[in-house]
């Protein structure tokens, strides 16, 4: 039930849905109120398409980068969370990577640098309908193609959300495996670290997939609307709401 409700909430919280609602309200409103709805729609558009404002919000929310030198020399495993492949795209004879794909390259980097002995790939599918293969399958394929042996990969492909990532990863570990590095997107680190701590795991965070950039005060960043800013604002809205919901439900 929670899984389906989360999908409905994702839809309701889309800024594009807010814009459409404001425009519909403007269409059906009487002339004296129509202007107010149109002004509200314009103000929202300017806010969520402003690169500088959205980037500032991202900088405030995303976990800061972690230097490789700050990590343990030999951790038991890197936990690689999925959410970066498209498992609903045909033909299904390849892997389709989306934004945040440097999650997998970061995990591979940790393995190649000898910082971790194994990689735990955690994630099934967040789709409501059945899919041809899981995201864990996809990322395992990429790791194998990059030369990581099967013996160094542990696959968890039942989880559908961050809470289940933590729960099902915990079931895979033995008591002596307690040094973990959690690899996920920087905007997702707060929720992921909280979920893993809740189930008794206390990994070291290694953020990847940054959506923010270094602060820029150039005219294009301050004044020129950018559709990518709207995408990032939608992502941030989803993540902050997810964190608040998990907090209220006791998952963090």
How would you explain this protein's 3D organization?
- The protein has 252 residues and is α/β, with parallel strands linked by helices.
- The chain is built from ten helices and five strands, in the order ααααβαβαβαβαβαα.
- The protein has a five-stranded parallel sheet, with helices on both faces.
- It is elongated.
- The relative contact order is 0.18.
Describe the protein's topology:
Elements: H1 2-12, H2 15-28, H3 31-48, H4 51-61, E1 75-81, H5 102-112, E2 116-122, H6 135-145, E3 153-156, H7 162-172, E4 180-185, H8 189-198, E5 204-208, H9 219-223, H10 227-249
Parallel strand pairs: 1-2, 1-4, 2-3, 4-5
Keyword list:
5-stranded parallel sheet, alpha/beta, 252 residues, 50% helix, single chain
Summarize the structure.
With 252 residues, this protein is of the alpha/beta class. The protein has helices at 2-12, 15-28, 31-48, 51-61, 102-112, 135-145, 162-172, 189-198, 219-223, 227-249; strands at residues 75-81, 116-122, 153-156, 180-185, 204-208. Strand 4, helix 8 (189-198) and strand 5 (204-208) form a beta-alpha-beta unit.
